[in-house]
């Protein structure tokens, strides 16, 4: 056996090994560190082409502890009641001081910090739930709370800090004595953070009246959330050791350090205004700022390891904050748009009856269902200590993109109600905030075209990373042996995937593996079918394009879209199962599946149409898509049933839009909820009036069609609906200071017109 393996290695594998080493593109240190950051999880199962559904269904649901639930019902609810979004972004341009005091006192900034350091020690799911709820009340407050609990000094200290650093800084971050921010983006380096020119030169200097070896820093950062108010800056820079004070290497690489913002040379800039959002955000600079080496997170041993540290932390952070905000936005859009469509009438009937409204409303509803399903599943992984790097990228990308679609649809259905700004507009500011989520934590264009599949293909593929490591091994013989082992396993895997994909595609997945999941069982079969087709196409693309595939960004993006759909659809199935297979929710699940299957089939068709090797493309088409892209999307029946989920008070509506920040005030959202409740509770009474061809409820009472009490109920409902439909208006001087000295604005313009006519 041993001699046979040696013969295979020396005779068959050796020339392949030599060829592969010749074409393998060089991998930079930053690329390798990004690839090695985080974990693989369910994405690896999807890459096998034969996912083990029992593994997915056994994943424990993300749940809250009693303490975490009490925090949501207590301090979080109190915070939401303190927030007035219109005043925050229009009048104050900031959170009021009592809110800043409250979030620091109640340790909102220390949710992820362990209790031993004075924090709340909450789970990722609790962190997600807090951000989600606050997001439905105030974007500015949600961002303010989520940033200290995401990528930044707190998380980096917990993961990589020395014991002394943790004991010094974490209690201060937990109780709000220090407000953190993190400086990564600079004018020269946005998505390409490795291009930063910010520097830290190792040298000797004086710090707190003693001479120490440290770093002299010069930097310029921008777009830094909480930067204008931060007292502790986490900073990413490139470290250099020209005098070899810590070792033989001169260029040490990206490093992260803690910078108290009161140090000499630190310049906190003025505020940015991101899409009219007023959370604290701005630039900062450092000019010859000196810090000791023990301000490097993790100490001297972590010099040059900053990029890997950042990517590891980001692998978790991108799966929590923005997906939570996005899921909240979609659920909020579903609840408000369903209620508004139900109570708003045109041409004598509720606009919810129009199929042109049902279609975007169904899309909002299903998006809310799917995003929250994916959020919960990702949090379940994070709760278990898994940091899924590829899945976090999928979540950030698709959660923010789908929130954008959902909010756009909500704006379209609301029409002028959502366009006219004012205290009663409950959608406008969310619409303005959407581009922020699209842009931050890695621009979505970059994430879709380069990261999701580019990172996923290497990390989640069963054998590719082993092959690449073997090819890069400086010990040629050791590398050849490792490559021989991984390569032939890869070949066997490819042949199994080929036959599996062929059988499942030609039988439309009829015999693909699936759990017993009731009405959802056929969906599992189709996902098994598409997983096999995806895995085979990936292998063939890698075989024919090799390292050039990463430069084929449009192909990479399409592969990434398929992987993303496989994950998001898996999450929707998991949610339906976990919630007890609720029949009322099945329409939302059907919509997700039909839309996702259509996307997968279209992306496969696009890949096969654009794969450079046409012989392989034709062969793959015969194997994985012999009948073409056939799924057309959700049927009209599904659209109608899905839209109906939010048009009446029901348990399905509550499951779809749980735990939103509902405050009993006179705000637009509260008015809408009251009007919806009154309108739906009086629907039967209104039908009796319509049947009697009577419009005035008093006339109906006098004719005995309804009772006096029922008439008064109708009047209350009508008044509530009228208050919702009304939009805000303002005195000219309230909107523009140029009119404040003008006693009569109309007279001013009349005189201006007469002067123009005379001239």
From TrEMBL:
Record-annotated Acyl-CoA dehydrogenase C-terminal bacterial-type domain positions: 458-730
Pathway assigned to this chain's UniProt record: Lipid metabolism; fatty acid beta-oxidation
Residue span(s) of domain Acyl-CoA dehydrogenase/oxidase C-terminal: 304-451
Family per record: Belongs to the acyl-CoA dehydrogenase family.
Catalytic activity: a long-chain 2,3-saturated fatty acyl-CoA + oxidized [electron-transfer flavoprotein] + H(+) = a long-chain (2E)-enoyl-CoA + reduced [electron-transfer flavoprotein]; a medium-chain 2,3-saturated fatty acyl-CoA + oxidized [electron-transfer flavoprotein] + H(+) = a medium-chain (2E)-enoyl-CoA + reduced [electron-transfer flavoprotein]
A GO term, aspect molecular function: long-chain fatty acyl-CoA dehydrogenase activity
Main EC class the enzyme belongs to: oxidoreductase
A GO-annotated cellular component: cytoplasm
Organism: Bradyrhizobium forestalis
Family matches, as PANTHER family: ACYL-COENZYME A DEHYDROGENASE (PTHR48083:SF33), MEDIUM-CHAIN SPECIFIC ACYL-COA DEHYDROGENASE, MITOCHONDRIAL-RELATED (PTHR48083)
Domain of life: Bacteria
Residue span, Acyl-CoA dehydrogenase/oxidase N-terminal domain: 83-176
EC number(s) from the headed UniProt entry: 1.3.8.7, 1.3.8.8
Listed cofactors: FAD
Name listed for the protein in its UniProt record: Acyl-coenzyme A dehydrogenase
Start and end residues of each Acyl-CoA oxidase/dehydrogenase middle domain: 181-271
GO biological process, one term: fatty acid beta-oxidation using acyl-CoA dehydrogenase
Keywords for this protein: FAD, Fatty acid metabolism, Flavoprotein, Lipid metabolism, Oxidoreductase
Signal peptide start-end: none
Classification via InterPro entries: Acyl-CoA_dehydrogenase, Acyl-CoA_Oxase/DH_mid-dom, Acyl-CoA_Oxase/DH_mid-dom_sf, AcylCo_DH-like_C, AcylCo_DH/oxidase_C, AcylCoA_DH/ox_N, AcylCoA_DH/ox_N_sf, AcylCoA_DH/oxidase_NM_dom_sf
